[in-house]
């Protein structure tokens, strides 16, 4: 084999190895991220099921007292807030998002 041919052959072999490495790396990274998403979803689903059994106020309108409890316990675990308010886990998640969109976060004025 001539030196130029050997160089081209070596470069092609390196390129194939590099492409295989990249393909494997992206596959591993993607599956790890998917695994984290699945784990997070499973935890949220378990929390929702556990609070659904005790939620006596599910589907009822929200009032200012409940908003105040959420704002006062902003950093507390959502499951505990849900049990305190007799709401579901997901309803607390949604209400926190709504309060945040309205610009109400801890330390700001009372909900109007």
What is the total tally of β strands? 0
H and E string = HHHH
Distance between the termini: 83 Å
Rg, please? 26 Å
- Quote the average pLDDT: 80
Work out the count of structural domains: 1
**Structural class per helix/strand content?**
mainly alpha
Number of helices: 4
Largest sheet composition? none
Low-confidence stretches: none
Q: What form results from the Cα inertia axes?
A: elongated
How much of the sequence lies in strands comes to: under 5%
Structure description:
With 112 residues, the protein is mostly helical. It has one domain (3-101). The protein has 4 helices and no strands. α3 (78-85) crosses α4. The longest helix is centred in the first third of the chain and has 50 residues, at 3-52. The radius of gyration is 26 Å and the shape is elongated. The chain starts with a helix and ends in an 11-residue tail after the last helix. The model has no long low-confidence stretch (mean pLDDT 80).
Features:
112 residues; elongated; 4 helices; mainly alpha
How do the helices and strands line up, and which of them pair or pack?
Layout: H1 3-52, H2 64-72, H3 78-85, H4 89-101
Summary of the model, kept short:
By secondary structure, the protein is mainly alpha-helical. Helices cover 71% and strands 0% of the residues. It has four helices and no strands.
